UniProtKB/TrEMBL annotation:
It comes from the Eukaryota. The keyword Ribonucleoprotein does not apply. Residues 1-211 form the Protein kinase domain. The keyword Signal does not apply. Keywords: ATP-binding, Kinase, Nucleotide-binding, Serine/threonine-protein kinase, Transferase. InterPro entries: Kinase-like_dom_sf (IPR011009), Prot_kinase_dom (IPR000719), Serpin_CS (IPR023795). Pfam families: Pkinase. This is For protein. It comes from Symbiodinium natans. One of its GO terms (molecular function) is protein serine/threonine kinase activity.
């Protein structure tokens, strides 16, 4: 209340309650206390774990989560590893709708994590759901390489690297080939040129060569075994 954030909390609740996807943390109920507001959320007790097979499994979950959100005109705007949780079975869940927003057309608020900013957000030129797919590019790179592509100690240096573009980034040897092609196609400077923003939508990612042997139907139904099952000590 002191910082005038009441509407932000209501917006987070309203967006979260709109979501009904196995790839997004569920909001079951909200409560009022004397000093606090409470969200009763679905528990996800695992943690991320990395290798190419794991990265592919997690990136696919984000594709499905974004497809669900964008179908409801919701832009997420805060993708990063910290906002991805694993269930005790190792299935991925997107969480934290604090910056998510229902948008028809463009919105102009600059928000999120600098490493994951899109050029249009830095320029305050207005952004659409294309910023989410741009952040998917950064996530894919980070899960594979162990660090984001535009990292720097200072935000202004990050912004300079973002504006120079993904073609100026050195890809590690393990990312050469099809995964490099996917990242570069998600990371196009022009929002309309990003792979899922072209005709075919998110299906363009599903059909990409990196997912050539990936069984999407099994994955979508929750029947694909996860490549990593967390060791959960207890509920």
């Amino acid at each position: 209340m002191k910082s005038g954030m009441q509407q932000n909390v209501l917006n987070e609740k309203n967006v979260q309650i709109m979501c009904d996807s196995p790839f997004i943390i569920k909001l079951y109920e909200t409560y009022n206390g004397t000093q606090s507001l409470y969200f009763l959320l679905e528990p996800a007790l695992g943690g991320l774990f990395g290798k190419e097979g794991h990265a592919k499994f997690y990136v696919a979950g984000v594709v499905n989560a974004f497809e669900h959100l964008h179908g409801k005109k919701i832009i997420f705007r805060d993708l990063k590893p910290e906002n991805l949780l694993l269930t005790e079975l190792g299935h991925i869940k997107l969480t934290d709708m604090g910056l998510a927003k229902v948008v028809v057309g463009k919105t102009y608020t600059t928000c999120g994590t600098p490493d994951y900013f899109a050029p249009e957000m830095i320029a305050s030129a207005g952004h659409t759901m294309a910023v989410d797919w741009r952040s998917e590019c950064v996530l894919s790179f980070e899960l594979m390489a162990g660090h984001p592509p535009f990292e720097s100690a200072h935000p202004m240096q990050i912004y300079q690297k973002v504006n120079k573009g993904i073609t100026k980034v050195n890809f590690p040897n393990k990312m050469k080939g099809v995964v490099e092609d996917l990242v570069k196609n998600l990371c196009k400077k022009e929002p309309a040129d990003r792979l899922p923003m072209r005709k075919g939508g998110a299906g363009n990612v599903r059909k990409h060569a990196w997912f050539n042997t990936f069984e999407w139907e099994k994955y979508d139904n929750g029947n694909m075994p996860s490549p990593y099952k967390p060791q959960v000590r207890g509920a």
